Amino acid sequence: MSEQSKILSEMNDRSREVFRRVVEGYLETGDPVGSRTLTRMMSEKLSAATIRNVMQDLEYLGLLGSPHVSAGRVPTQMGLRMFVDGLMEVSKLDVSDRQALEATMGVNDPDVGSLLDRVGSALSGITHGASLVLAPKHEAPIRHIEFVSLAPDRALVVLVFADGQVENRVFTPPTGQTPSSMREAANFLNSLAEGRTLTELREHIKTQIAAHRQELDTLAAALVESGLAQWEDEGQPFERLIVRGRSNLLDEDYDVSRIRDLFDDLERKRDIAEFLQLTDEGDGVRIFIGSENKLFSLSGSSLVVSPYMNADRKIIGAIGVIGPTRLNYGRIVPIVDYTAQLVGRMLSGRGKG
After folding, report:
1. What is the model's pLDDT at position 335?
2. Which of 1, 208, 240, 273 is most exposed, with the fewest beta carbons within 10 Å of its own?
3. Complete domains list, the chain, with CATH
4. H helical segments located in 30-94
5. Residue 215 pLDDT > 70, yes or no?
6. Which strands make up the sheet holding 286-289, listed edge to edge?
7. By the 8 A CB rule, do 209 and 217 touch?
8. What are residue 282's phi and psi, to 5 degrees?
9. 210/58 Cα distance (integer angstroms)
10. 8 A C-beta contact, residue 278 and residue 286
């Protein structure tokens, strides 16, 4: 039995209710909850003095804290963890939330990346937090590859897979690339790609580029290498991290610079291995509060995350929501859980097609 579980089991009904009311009030408003407020909420009639004594006991146990000079209390990280594990009531998924998530699946778009972008945006909009979506690598055989110049410093690679899916990636091409060098690179790749997955193609191309270096224009070779670096993160089981709704966190009343640092880290994929490990203990939603996970501890954020699986029940990606520690966990958990199931079913269905 954990320390929190032991404390919870030893608390009487009055202490448990005071604790629960303080946490629920804080999660709803973000403000400290005072004894006078609680006198109007308790199931039994208690004086403010009695409630203050109970709150002091809870503070002594490390479950509540007193911010600044306020007479009210807020839950500590330990208190939030105990509430989430032992007292939180998970609400049913709201019909409008369900419909908003399902609507992202209704667009007939062969590009999985675009669909996951929409899922992330919908999840961010519904939860008012920032959403994270770890997109899986697509391992179907490749049918066609094309490079498209967007600007001198931006180009697009279009991948068409044998199962009909399409993926688009924007990348920074080598300086001095021309339309002809891009066509040459695409022709070279297409001559090697058919029937191979991206992983297989990457291995094959390593040897082919070396063997055909003299035949390839220098810029075309560099373009091939630059483009492949965008599709394939060597050694990483996941290809891309999609982040949506960061402005929701910047609106919150906590350290903006830390939030920016967090997203800078995510964009550079530093410590993403840590994020991947959050879901390696099987199915279901997991909640990380504040410093319980080093990736989010500096920003004072919480993470609600769930893996999604393919038809073989293999974890192929993850979906999560980042927000302040006063997230409405009871509402967020079923939303993240349903989104993960929805994405898993959608990707499994495509795999069968």
Report:
1. 96
2. 1
3. 3-86 (1.10.10.10), 95-137+237-352 (3.30.450.40), 142-231 (3.30.390.10)
4. 35-39, 48-60, 77-86
5. no
6. 238-244, 130-136, 315-324, 301-309, 286-289
7. no
8. 100, -170
9. 68
10. yes
Check residue 307 and give its pLDDT. 87
Instruction: Give the chain's radius of gyration (CA, Å).
Output: 25
Q: Is the pLDDT of residue 108 over 60?
A: yes
Beta bridge partners of 158: 146, 168
Q: What is the pLDDT of residue 20?
A: 93
Identify which of 226, 228, 192, 196 has the alpha carbon closest to the alpha carbon of residue 212. Answer: 192
Give the chain's mean pLDDT: 80
198-211 and 218-231 are packed helices; what angle lies between their axes, rounded to 10 degrees?
160
| Confidence (pTM) | 0.71
The answer to whether residue 75 scores a pLDDT higher than 50 is yes
Strand partners, 24: none
Is residue 268 within 8 Å of 243, Cβ to Cβ?
Answer: no
User: Could you tell me the pLDDT band of residue 59, with boundaries at 50, 70 and 90?
Assistant: very high
Q: Which single residue is written with the structure tokens 């400290």?
A: 32
What's the pLDDT at 237? Answer: 45
Here the tokens at position 244 are 């949506």
Q: pLDDT category, 134, cuts 50, 70, 90?
A: confident
CA angle 42, 332, 1 (to 5 degrees): 65
Q: What are the structure tokens assigned to 290, written together? A: 């504040």
DSSP string covering 288-352: EEGGGSHHHHTTTEEEEEEEEE-TTS-EEEEEEEEEETT--HHHHHHHHHHHHHHHHHHHHHHHH
Q: Is 300 left (phi over 0), alpha (psi -120 to 50) or beta?
A: left
**For residue 109, which amino acid is it?**
D
Nearest to 37, CA basis, from 29, 25, 28: 25
Q: How far apart are the first and last CA of the chain?
A: 47
Nearest to 164 by CA among 100, 112, 210: 112
